[in-house]
Amino acid sequence: MSLITTHVLDAALGGPASDIAVRLLDAAGSELATGVTDADGRVSELGPESLEPGDYSLVFAVAPYFARTGTPTFYPVVTIHFTVRQGDVHYHVPLLLSPFAYSTYRGS
Question: What is the mean pLDDT of residues 90-106?
């Protein structure tokens, strides 16, 4: 199982946001993995089973999603920075998305 997973929900429509490209980057900005949200808005395999402790980012390309739905958006890209700590076995990082706001949290 991947150490990092994510789930994107369109809060304005009340459902999953599919076909959003997601990149996992290390602190230097090097790309470690890529994925695309499925019909349920999930990327269940994003990167390796383990990562060194440190800072990482998930980058969500949301502009194409909003363009497909015909919705103007203020945020063409959403970047979430987080820290991987020694001994943690899984990080689920959901994104709650709307055209003019977003929020995130550490899921389970």
Answer: 95
Q: Is the dihedral of CA 58, 60, 61, 63 positive or negative?
A: negative
Total-model pTM: 0.95
Residue with tokens 């459902």: 15
* 26-39 average pLDDT score: 97
CA 83 to chain centre: 14
Show the domain range for 50.
Answer: 4-104
Distance of CA 12 to the CA centre of its chain: 17
- CA-based Rg of the chain, rounded to a whole angstrom? 13
Q: Positive or negative CA dihedral for 103, 108, 16, 84?
A: positive
How many structural domains does the chain have? 1
Write the CA distances from 85 to 33, 35, 43, 45, 99, integer angstroms. Answer: 19, 23, 21, 19, 32
Q: CATH number, domain at 17?
A: 2.60.40.180
User: What local confidence, expressed as pLDDT, does residue 17 receive?
Assistant: 97
